[in-house]
Amino acid sequence: MSPGWSWYVIVLVAFNILGAAWLLWWTGKRRPGDPLPEDTSHYWDGDITEYNKPMPRWWINGFYIAIAFGIGYLLWFGGLGSYAGLGDWSSQGEHARDKAAADARLEETFKPYRDQPLPALAADPAALALGRSIFANTCATCHGSSAQGAIGYPDLSDDIWHWGGAPERILQTVLDGREGVMPPWGQVLTGMGGENAVDYVIAYVRALRDPALMRNNFMAAQGKQLYDGVCVACHGIDGKGNPEMGAPDLTDGYWLYGDDKQSLRKTITEGRHGIMPAHRGLLGETRARLVAAYVWSLSHKGDAAEGATPPQ
């Protein structure tokens, strides 16, 4: 708050307090010339008379005490512009203290699981329940309560991992996030293969999963040449992808953004930009480890039950 606004608040508060005190003083006593109660000539029902009489002294004193309390409250807790108050209290400070206390309790709860391997955590029912709870609070917004994802959000319950499915790779994804970028190749491909170039590439990409589609397929044959010139750098010559850069395997039949022709054309022409936010600061190491163990367990139920790490 700037000094000008701070003084504005201080003057406004002081004016209101002094105004309330003056009003109490002005109306709290009779003055010379005021009519006596019986001189008002205002009667109702024969025995009800309007009196011009101040409020009782105990009532007036109660208001003065409230004003004094309000002044003390403002001086102690701060309420006069940017004045911090004698008690050095702030809502931010109170929140920080409450958060520190809550974090200490959470730390005690999660302490037994610190630095534990993910397969071991996945084999522990208590740890798995904690991981499921953390997932529901943090991850389900994007990946769904069943972890099966949606268009643009990966299915975490299958065995397909664009960034690698080894336990430590999953933990790294949760802690530090991922950013997958598919560049827009529409203009480049059109310049190389004409106006049907994108459709050629779509035909070849679909044939990577089913080689039978390559037989007598002119479009797929044209698409292979374009693929080898543009796409092979990320997805590999065999289309198996590259987990180090998040390039998906094009032979497994899983399409993050949809497998219909319109979706594939949009992906190739305009590109895609997917971001998995980093959760290290939000969850911390141990909670991230627990939720990563839960995610890993979804596609390794047998291995999780035995607490063993499968071949990577």
UniProtKB/TrEMBL annotation:
Span-the-membrane segments of this chain are: 6-26, 63-86
Per its UniProt record, what InterPro entries does this chain match? CcoP_N (IPR032858), CcoP_N_sf (IPR038414), Cyt_c-like_dom (IPR009056), Cyt_c-like_dom_sf (IPR036909), Cyt_c_oxidase_cbb3_su3 (IPR004678), Cytochrome_c_Oxidase_Subunit (IPR050597)
Q: Where in the cell is it found?
A: Cell inner membrane
Q: Name the needed cofactors.
A: heme c
Assigned keywords, A-Z: Cell inner membrane, Cell membrane, Electron transport, Heme, Hydrogen ion transport, Ion transport, Iron, Membrane, Metal-binding, Oxidoreductase, Repeat, Respiratory chain, Transmembrane, Transmembrane helix, Transport
Predominant localisation class:
membrane
Show the GO MF annotations: electron transfer activity; heme binding; metal ion binding; oxidoreductase activity
Its Gene Ontology biological processes?
oxidative phosphorylation; proton transmembrane transport
- Cofactor: binding details: Binds 2 heme C groups per subunit.
Where are the annotated coiled coils located? none
The residues that the entry says bind heme c 2 are: 182, 231, 234-235
Q: Where is the Cytochrome c domain?
A: 126-209, 218-299
Listed GO CC annotations: plasma membrane
Binding site residues for heme c 1: 139, 142-143, 276
Please name the pathway.
Answer: Energy metabolism; oxidative phosphorylation
Known function: C-type cytochrome. Part of the cbb3-type cytochrome c oxidase complex.
Q: Which family does it belong to?
A: Belongs to the CcoP / FixP family.
Assembly: Component of the cbb3-type cytochrome c oxidase.
Q: What is this protein called?
A: Cbb3-type cytochrome c oxidase subunit
